[in-house]
Amino acid sequence: MGKGNSNSILTKSLIGIFLLVLAFGCQDDLLNTGLENDSENIELKSAAFSEYMVISRSETLPGSLQEQIQAFGVVIKTVPEIGLMVVSPTTDDFEKKVGKLNGVMGVVPNLRLKGVNQGGLSLLANPPSIGDDEDLFELQWALDAIDAPEAWNAGYTGANTRVFILDTGIDPNHPDLEQNLNTELSKSFVPGESYAYNGGYWAWHGIMIAGIIAAADNQIGTIGVAPDAEIVALKVFSEFSGEGQISWVCDAIVYAANNGADLMNMSFGWLFYKNGFYYDENGDLQKVPAVYVQNIIHLFKRAVDYADKKGVVMVVAAGNDGLSADGNGSLFDVPASFENVISVSATAPDYWYGDLVNGTTDTNFDIPAHYTTYGRSFIDIAAPGGDYDYAFMGEPENWWYDGIIAPVQEPFGYWEWGMGTSFAAPHVVGVAALIIGKNGGQMNPRQVRQQLLKTADPIDCNGQSPFFGKGRVNAYRAVTE
Questions:
Q1: CATH for the stretch 24-34+114-121+130-480
Q2: DSSP, residue by residue, 251-305
Q3: Does the N-terminal peptide bond of residue 335 adopt cis geometry, omega within 30 degrees of 0?
């Protein structure tokens, strides 16, 4: 065991419910408010916008357009590859005036949204502690579920692959992460914050995801699915608030694509009604013109398409609302609804600790997590995300063993359990890294996607399952078939 001390408590947290207040965390409320009818009787909070995203008509940003915009505001940031400018207005009627310019497709508030959410659940005070010299590998049931050790024994560990993680940053000094972290390319898109952990609570989210993908094989703590993959941390959500702006994420996607990304993990999602309803970073219901939502989707699609053309495989978490995405045409999830990303649902065992105590060796790890979003039209593949359904029963003991154990920051004891589709997605990213590493470090995203899906284990059918997509990811089959 590495750093930490024997008195530190390995905290089981229900921190895996990753999504925004506006997104999957509130989707149940959203689906039952009749918002698709654009009701005028709903009392809305007022939203004030200090920054706007100006989106050019052309796919890339003309230099002449930027010069025109400077007459109406201060240009804070440009992402030329996708025709984006972030502007702070200096004139009244900014949106109206700029929107009339010939080269402008749309002017949209640079919405600040929640990136990670506690989900109304809190950390437990007294789960079991793990001493410095204990081996955590035996607690990583998820690796057994996807046959990762068999893939390693076949000689594949993710070497020569580069994975970008868009999240809340990382701890560059964590003993499980420092070996595989590229500190030169890691970057923060959050003003005033470094990519590196600096005491913020929400840092755990990005740290856990990094560890699930590529915790080093160093006889310390846990091991990642692809323990020899290179990871790059891109902070797009504040480690202190869990919030971020749309422009930060789009900028980071382009940055990753321009800097040799093979893979990208996006364990977040923003859910919009196409008629303009959404929840802001405070959980307040907001209504903007429907054209705002259309332009946000279009802009994000540009970013995703740009990365796809650059050869980046993008894997995203499906969400934790526990509802079907089928038949909800008025809703759009950014980024999981885009066709060129891989959307991942979550699986878990049913009280795995009981099987450990009883010596059971045939545990079923392929039970859909009770919270996972599902739908034949939405889910591509499934992976372990853990579950916390027993938490609501008050017993049995040690139910948190059904979660995913992974690295976190020092105040939480360096390793911790979490549950959510946030932690299912990086298992798929890890397997994809094994596939790419096997093929020398570069592959067409469609080839990687095809290999993942065709070698997944079909769980409940041989077609497209609403809970599993094409099946639960299988690392060994992915590198041997």
A1: 3.40.50.200
A2: HHHHHHHHTT-SEEEE---EEEETTSEEE-TTS-EEE--HHHHHHHHHHHHHHHH
A3: yes
CA 461, chain centre distance (Å):
27
In angstroms, the CA 94 to CA 86 distance is 13
Structure tokens at 239: 């480690």
DSSP codes of every residue in 405-436? EEE--GGGTSEEEE-SHHHHHHHHHHHHHHHH
Tokens of 73: 């505001």
Say how far apart CA 424 and CA 462 lie, in whole Å.
21
Of the listed ranges 205-209, 371-375, 396-400, the least confidently predicted one is 396-400
CA gap 224, 204 in Å, rounded? 16
231, 165 Cβ separation under 8 angstroms: yes
Report domain extents, the chain: 24-34+114-121+130-480, 50-110
Task: Specify burial of residue 66 (Cβ count, 10 A radius: 0-12, 13-18, 19+).
Answer: middle
Neighbours of 50 (CB within 10 A): 9
Where does residue 251 rank: exposed (0-12), middle (13-18), buried (19+ CB within 10 A)?
A: buried
Distance CA 302, CA 278 (A): 21
Q: What is the pLDDT of residues 263-302, one digit of tens each?
A: 999 999 988 989 999 888 887 888 999 999 999 999 999 9
Q: DSSP letters of 292-319?
A: HHHHHHHHHHHHHHHHHHTT-EEEEE--
**Terminal C-alpha separation, the chain:** 35
Alpha-carbon distance of 319 to 376, in angstroms, equals 14
Helix axes 445-454, 421-438, angle to 10 degrees: 110
DSSP strands (E only) in 197-269: 230-235, 243-245, 263-266
CATH code for the domain defined by 50-110:
3.30.70.80
Note the pLDDT tens digit of each residue in 9-65: 333 334 333 322 222 333 333 333 345 544 444 444 445 689 999 999 999 999 899
